[in-house]
Known about the structure:
The chain is α+β, with helices and mostly antiparallel strands.
Amino acid sequence: MKIPIGLVVAAALTTAGPVNGQTRDQDVLAVVTRFFDGMRARDTAVIASTLFGEVTLVTTATDNAGKPVARSEAMTGFMESVAKATGKLDERISSPEVRVEDNLATVWTRYELYVNDKYSHCGIDAFQLVKTDTGWRISAIADTRRASCK
Length: 150
């Protein structure tokens, strides 16, 4: 059976977009995964390899009175605390959403943090990434922290 060339071209064009988009999204998510791999290994060189410029980590939560609190710290401070951690840190992400436009990407994902295999807290991680000539790099991180996400 002969298949008309128009159908072959249409099928190729239809599948090419999502495959390319999926690869791009996977490349972005791979950087976030490498960031957490570095955290689990307490390897600040791996963490640093995922970053672009002077990254700031912003954390939000709600205090016991129900008021919002926010703090920011330079990524260098975060990396120092990871390197000095006495326990095993394991931040587990789930249901990541990746958005990409040109050289800008966002990863929004749920997480649960475990310290020495014991549940600590949960929330949402929001990563901003930029594409450089050496690949995707994290330019900003924000998160929420809650005692329970159930």
